[in-house]
Design brief:
711 residues; mainly beta
Length: 711
Amino acid sequence: MFNYRTCAASALAFAFALPAPLLAQDHAHALEPSGAQEPARDPILTDVILVTAATRVEAVDTAEPPHHIPLPADTVSLAARAAGGGAVGNGALSGQLSYRGLFGERVLGRVNGQRFVTGGPNAMDPPMHYAPSILVEVLEIARGVAPVSQGPSLAGAVNARLVETGFASGDSVEASGYLAGQYRSADDSGAVGGRVGLATKYWRIGVIASREEGDDYRFADSRIAGGTLFERNLYGVHAGAKVAGGELFAEYRRNETDPSGNPPFALDIVYFDTDFLQGGWRGDLAPQVALEIKAGHVAVRHLMDNVTLRRPIPAQQRSTFASADTFTADARLRFGTATRHIAIGADLEEADRFVRITDPTNANFFIDSQPDVEAQRIGGFVEARLGFGALEGEAGLRIDRTTQNAGVPTLGAAVPMGPRGLANAFIASAREAADTTLDAVMRLWMPGDVATPRLTLARKTRVPSVLERFAWLPTEASYGLADGNIYVGNQALKPEIAWIAEAGVDLESGGFTFRPTAFFRRVDDYIQGTPFDDTPGVINSPVEMVSNMNGDATPLMFRNVDAELYGLDADFSAVLAGRIMLEGTASYVRGKRRDAADNLYRVPPLSARLAAMWHGEGWFAGAEVNASAAQGKVSATNGETRSGGYAVVNLFASLTLAPEIVLDAGIENLFDRFYQPHLAGLNRVGASDVPVGQRLPGAGRGVWVRTSLRF
């Protein structure tokens, strides 16, 4: 339950995050952005969602009133509002972004441009876990294909930028801040957070902080009992100084996630204690010569169990300790301007992971399921942004060398002989791998007054994860697939190679925009769980014996298969009579294997979103419909079940109380519709109103309110 005594007083003065795309931004206290050397966000290449810009409702007699659809949502759900997006629901704080049918490590996730590996073997802390929506200012989503300069990425990329103090415009010290708070009845949750800072035109310093707390959410007069409560704190400091024609910058953040439910998993979060550190320099070495160098470290310390929030029988109690450290370094040099340049760069990433499974009732039972697993990657790229008459283009080439290795697992005296035999076999194996991958991207477009046709051709790759290669112990660890299956790794895996083609057009005339895109991805050596051997269900191998002891007689092994995904997505907006705005998205993707008569796992069905709002003087109100078709094209290999279609209606309104104070409120799921999103995880908690093995439903009808203050 949300602690009112602790947070109510603060919430009255705090501003609520604005989780929706915005077309207008309040510049009353705008400071010079700290990342002045970063490439301009071109709408052809990047979808930008402004989240907590604390935008007030400006005069509504302009051609484009503020695109402002406040809804209570986590950062993944906000990113999923982009065309082609979807939210994989694995718990209140563990959602992943699905983009055009792919998710997990195939979608590059970053916070403030920093890459890092998750701490848990089941990705209970995917990248957006560390970006509370109340502190996110901007979400940047690569349209279709991420440029090679962003690093390796098979499906796309999303970057969450947290609120930050920028440079001031004058010599004197200027104070600025953003404060926020909200309450949501569906899960009796609250959040407070914000930023305060001081700056001149030569230096800047700021602090950020947030706290979120919620109970199990309700649906259709029922509750996800004991499964979805959550608690998370984040605080940090950032600073910058203009030095040698550029900016010297640094930031530190601490994330502390306390007990939080993950009903699709066998275990829940007990804690994530994670430290982020990043710093560097960016600036101009000479006219039209820009340099950026930076380095960072992310340290994750994690505990998960099935004891804190659940009540298993003693023999099934488990606690798993995990740690992950990511070290990164980047350097890039750009010759030219933001729209006409050649850039070269190099980056380094080193990740160390360790996972130990224990029995809290028996100190002699412990298993190192991921023993000192290490991965090192060094890469380089060249990327050009050029023009050829009426034709604009961006092309890039990237090469990466990745090496991976695993240590020797240690097992306690109480561990039975089955796992011991598998450990010995793993110790005797190579426990190392090396891959060289090549990525190439070419994006072309022809700007026009009304229509801008565009074309993308790309070759993108993904190296198998250390889990997919070195998971010697059959467990449910699967980087968040959350399907109840038990998986085992495969050291013979090859990198995935995706051949991608996209074509579309951006239409814009007056207050109307429409941006459809058709895409095709042929993926060679796609990595998916497949039956361990040719006799599934027949326990005739040590792996199947151990898997059967863990509750699954039909384990899956990660193997290379062949796949393809194709589809169509679009977004649109229209301004009518200067005061009415319509906007929406539609997404369809078909994913299937090419080597077998089966579908890819967890591919979203056809979906659409439509919103309408009316703008008045200092206020607006509207409604939104989110609809999804049934999904019958499911993966038999993964035991995926079909899902039904649904449509959910939300209401929202906003009132500007003062130039810098905004009050938002709304009703979600107005008609209290029971629905189960296809991408939602399957429930594993017995003491719940949702049967074990069923998809988690969406939240029922509830009200929410938030207020915002910017100074």
